[in-house]
Amino acid sequence: MEILIVGAGQMGAGIAQVAAQHGHTVLLNDRDNELIERGIAVIRKNLDRAVEKSRITKAERDNALANICATPHLTNVEVEVAIEAVTEDLTTKRAIFEVLDQQTRPEAVLASNTSSISITALAAVTRCAPRVIGMHFMNPVPVMPLVEIIRGLETSGETFDTVKALAVQLGKTPVETRDFPGFVANRVLMPMINEAIYALYEGVASAEAIDTVMKLGANHPMGPLELADFIGLDTCLAIMNVLHEGFGDSKYRPCPLLRQYVAAGRLGRKSGRGFYEY
Ligand code: CAA
To answer: Angle at Cα 75 formed by Cα 71 and Cα 79, nearest 5°?
Structure first.
C-alpha cells in the first residue's frame, strides 16, 4: 500500500518506520526537507539498533529505508491512506486536512494520529467526512502494540475496515473508541499524569519519589513525570486543555506547574529539560 505520513516528528517517524518495515511505500512529509531528513535519521538510528540487537537483518533495514520517500510537497498525492501526525493543535491539523482533502484521490482514507482532538471537527473541513478517521498510535510506535481507532460522527464502515486491517497488518492491536475528548487512552492516562504534577506542585513528594511510587507500587514501566517528559509537556498540556474544554469539568484543569513549565520552554526530553534534565 502507498501511505502518506504528514509530520516527521516523534510519532510520524515511528509510524513511518513501522509502515516501511511492513512493506508499505511511505511518503514522508513535513514543513521542510530538514525536518523530513531529521525524521529519517531517527528511523535509521532505530533500525541500526534493531540490527545490532539481531531483531532484524541488514537487508530488512535496507529494504525498510528504501521504502521511505521524502515528500516535501503535497500536490496530487496518489496514496490509499494518509496519516496526519503533526503537533496537537486544532488549527494546524485542520489546515492539513484541507490540503489532504484537495490533494488526494477522493477514495483515499484520511487518518489523524491525534491524541485527543475531535475527528468529527477535522472531518468537517473536508468535502467527504466518511473518509476521515482517527488512528492513534502510542509512543514509542515501534514498541507499543496499541492503535486506538476513532470513528468520527460520519466515518464510513469502509474507512473503518481499511484502517483496522492496516493496523493488524502493522502488527498492532486495534481498539475501537468513539469520538469524545481524549478517546480512552488519554482520558485515563493524562489525568493521572496531571495529578502527579499536582502532587509535586503541592509538595507531597519529590519527582523521583512520585515516579518510584508508581513504578514499584503500580508496576508502571515509567513513573508519570518521567512519562510526561517522554510524551512532551506541551503535548500533555494540549491534551489536558482538550479534556477541560471538551467536558467543561474542572476535574480536568491543567496543573499550574504544567502551564508554567511549558511557558518556560521546559518541554521534557525533546528540549533537554522537563521534570528531569536530559
Ligand atoms: N523506538 C524504538 N524502539 C525502542 C524505543 C524507541 N523510541 N525505545 C525503546 N525501544 C525498544 C528497545 O530497543 C528495546 O527493544 P528489545 O527489547 O527488543 O531490545 C525495548 O524497546 C525496551 O527498551 P529499553 O530496554 O531500552 O528500555 P525499557 O525496558 O525501559 O523500555 C519503554 C522502554 C518501552 C519506552 C518503556 O519504558 C515503556 O513502556 N514506557 C511507557 C511508554 C508509554 O506509556 N507509552 C505511551 C505514552 S502515551 C502515548 O503515546 C499517547 C499519547 O497520545 C500521548
So the answer is: 70
Indicate whether 107 and 213 sit together in one domain.
no
Q: Is 186 in the pocket of ligand 1 (CB under 6 A)?
A: yes
pTM attached to this predicted model: 0.94
What contacts 212, CB < 8 A, 6 or more positions away? 223
Please check whether residues 114 and 202 belong to one and the same domain.
no
Measured from the Cα of 53, ligand 1's closest atom is 19
Question: Domain check: are 68 and 29 in the same one?
Answer: yes
Flag residues of the chain having pLDDT under 70.
none
Mutation test of ligand 1: which of 52, 143, 211, 267 has the most ligand atoms closer than 8 Å to its C-beta?
Answer: 143
Alpha-carbon distance of 103 to 26, in angstroms, equals 16
- What CATH number is attached to the domain comprising 44? 3.40.50.720
User: 144 CB less than 6 Å from ligand 1?
Assistant: yes
Q: What's the domain range around 9?
A: 2-177
Of all protein residues, whose CA lies closest to atom 8 belonging to ligand 1?
140
Residue range 136-172, pLDDT digits in tens: 999 999 999 999 999 999 999 999 999 999 999 999 9
Report how many domains make up the chain: 2
Is 263 inside any structural domain? Answer: yes
Ligand 1 atom with minimal separation from the 138 CA: 50
pLDDT one-digit tens code per residue, 228-258:
999 999 999 999 999 999 999 999 999 999 9
Question: Which residue's alpha carbon is at the smallest distance from atom 34 of ligand 1?
Answer: 143
